[in-house]
Design a protein that fits this description.
It is a single chain. The protein is of the alpha+beta class. Helix content is 25%, strand content 29%. It is globular, with a radius of gyration of 22 Å. The structure holds S-adenosylmethionine. S-adenosylmethionine binds next to strand 4, helix 5 and strand 6.
Length: 387
């Protein structure tokens, strides 16, 4: 019979050995908080094309504990409503809530530099497991957590109660923060945002930290760690690659309609200087989102089987279409913004600067803009203004 306490100790040891778990209080929290409590009614296991539901009550108890203390992200909801107990067998769907893999959860909590007495606002409660780890150290009154999905929030609240925390679990759009319990010393978001909402900065004490994933593509996103300054702005850097499901209010809707109709009228056509395929890599994808905020990258196949790539900015009615001939790519651009000109300029400057990694990117957030820059490459500066 598997012993949950020993599973928790193994998990903690694995996280220490990986170099992500450092603080002794956090180790104590990982060794104490029952992750399996937060996975009810069950999880969906990734089987490639489908998701296999496994429920807490239906699974063999040993198997269930092995799943609960695995190092994987465990999907708990698909398509904004479906839970494992409602699925009769393997299903297709898009994950909309999960218990993030423990290494990411612990790594982010470590990055918060928490001290006893800190007040924390968490955006994206999900299962509540990460909330519980922080409550274990800070106490339930010092942690507020906001979840946009009412049913997800209710399950998290019940799980938190079950492990002994009457946490302030709020159902709301976390992009608004939670002004009623502000100010906070730390804000942590476990869903990705296109821009850090200024509300989070406004609700954070001077010298406090805001930690969240920026970007709107499924890859090429970065973990921003900002310190709130005395002038009402926050400054910091991207501390590493990070991948989270998008905040629901900002989730990018898939492009509707015919791609060739979207790219019918080009204003220019030329050979590319950089292959558009680099946008499938993490750092170039991150740069593309800075250079062309609002643009989406689309992969498709032409009628003759040839690969097609696009950048579309639906709001600004602009596109770049990439056509391949052998090894060389041509770009057709249309609309008021020459998307590829902007992206390619950044990619060339970045390559000329020695292709610095994502943690070289600095970020300053003001009420009206996000300013990004890379110190080693003075020409690499971007401003995403709220107009
Ligand atoms: C990756 S899960 C959270 C993981 C969680 N911290 C854990 O480890 O259990 C992301 C959660 O963010 C929630 N979410 C998405 N958009 C949100 C928003 N605008 N405000 C608050 N929560 C949001 C989703 O419903 C989902 O439950």
């Amino acid at each position: 019979m598997t012993d949950p306490a020993s599973e928790r100790r193994h998990l903690a040891t694995a996280l220490v050995n990986k170099g992500v778990l450092k603080a002794s209080w956090l180790r104590a929290a990982v060794e104490t908080v029952s992750r399996e409590q937060f996975l009810r009614p069950g999880v969906f296991l990734d089987e490639g094309r489908t998701w296999r539901p496994v429920t807490a009550d239906g699974a063999n108890p040993d198997d269930w504990l092995k799943i609960a203390y695995s190092v994987d992200t465990l999907t708990t909801q698909l398509d904004g409503h479906l839970t494992a107990d409602q699925a009769g067998g393997p299903v297709v769907g898009v994950p909309t809530s999960s218990s993030t893999d423990p290494a990411t959860v612990v790594g982010m909590i470590e990055a918060l530099d928490l001290s006893a007495g800190h007040r924390v606002l968490e955006i994206g409660t999900g299962t509540g497991y990460s909330t519980a780890l922080m409550c274990h150290y800070l106490g339930e009154d010092n942690v507020a957590t906001v979840e946009v999905d009412a049913q997800v929030a209710a399950r998290a609240d019940a799980a938190l109660e079950a492990v002994g925390f009457s946490t302030w679990t709020v159902t709301d759009d976390g992009l608004l923060g939670h002004p009623y319990r502000a100010p906070y010393d730390r804000v942590i978001a476990t869903c990705a945002v296109r821009r850090i909402p200024y509300a989070w900065i406004r609700q954070t004490n001077l010298g406090g930290i805001v930690l969240g994933t920026v970007g709107s593509w499924p890859w090429g996103t970065g973990l921003a760690k900002l310190t709130v300054g005395d002038d009402g702005t926050a400054e910091g850097r991207i501390v590493g690659r990070s991948s989270f499901m998008q905040a629901r209010a900002q989730a990018v809707a898939p492009l509707a309609g015919d791609l060739s109709a979207r790219s019918a009228y080009a204003d220019s056509e030329r050979r590319v200087l950089v292959s558009p395929l680099v946008l499938e890599e993490w750092m170039p994808a991150f740069l593309a989102q800075l250079a062309a905020p609002g643009a989406q990258f689309v992969r498709a196949t032409g009628g003759d089987g040839s690969p097609l790539r696009y950048l579309f900015d639906p709001e600004r009615e602009s596109f770049a279409e990439f056509l391949v001939d052998g090894e060389s790519w041509t770009v057709r651009q249309g609309g008021p913004v020459a998307l590829w000109d902007d992206v390619e300029r950044s990619l060339v400057a970045w390559q000329d600067a020695g292709a610095p990694e994502i943690d070289c990117v600095r970020l300053r957030v003001t009420p009206a803009s996000h300013q990004y820059w890379i110190d080693q490459a003075p020409s690499l500066r971007w401003e995403d203004r709220i107009t």
